[in-house]
Specification:
This protein has 186 residues and is of the alpha+beta class. The protein has helices at 44-61, 65-74, 82-95, and strands at residues 3-5, 14-17, 21-26, 29-34, 103-110, 114-121, 125-132, 140-146, 149-155, 162-169, 181-184. It has a 4-stranded antiparallel β-sheet with strand order 1-2-3-4, with no helix packed on it. The longest helix has 18 residues, at 44-61.
């Protein structure tokens, strides 16, 4: 028996038809695909991948509102959201047998010619604090060895200027980017 919502040849068709075709719609894109059941949906690799996916979603939910905004800005220019970018990066790090570190709670205190940044990390690592006028063009950097909480001061900035601030991990276990935050010096 067909489980289909909407007329079959319309933009609203969704659901399974006779265990043969599945009609889907996502973000305004309508598609139909062959209905297929995996032969063994619980292989060791599939179970491990699902566990990694569940972990990545759980880590995303640990982020604060400012962190979520940073990932949203980091995803600008990509065809998906900050959540999708975070999960993609986490899964890629896990797939390459690296051990990701969750960076969160980026705080900045801009001064006249400096910015102090701190970030909460789940393990000790070396972080590179980067500041620049344009996203991706970092004119000022500072390496900081962090334990549970890393703090770094970047000097040499111009007063009353908008800067973008980001943190990269300098570690074989975490080659990732934290995200972006816009700051203005006083």
């Amino acid at each position: 028996m067909a489980k289909l919502w909407g007329p079959l040849h319309s933009d609203d068709a969704r659901g399974k038809l006779a265990d043969a075709v599945v009609y889907i719609g996502w973000r305004g894109i309508k598609d139909s695909r062959m209905y297929k059941v995996p032969k063994n949906p619980k292989t060791a690799n599939q179970v491990a991948w699902r566990a990694n996916f569940t972990t990545s979603v759980g880590k995303y939910h640990l982020l604060s509102g400012a962190d979520i905004v940073a990932w949203k800005e980091r995803a600008a220019g990509f065809p998906y959201l900050g959540f999708n970018l975070f999960v993609e990066k986490w899964l890629k790090w896990k797939a390459s047998l690296k051990s990701p570190v969750l960076l969160k709670n980026l705080q900045t205190t801009p001064g006249a010619t400096y910015v102090v940044g701190s970030v909460l990390s789940s393990r000790a690592a070396t972080m590179t604090f980067k500041v620049g006028i344009t996203k991706g063009v970092w004119t000022h950097t500072k390496d900081v060895v962090a334990t549970a909480s890393g703090k770094g001061t970047v000097t040499g900035l111009t007063s009353k200027t908008n800067y973008y601030f980001t943190i990269d991990m300098v570690s074989a276990t975490y080659p990732g980017t934290y995200g972006y935050k816009k700051i203005t010096t006083t």
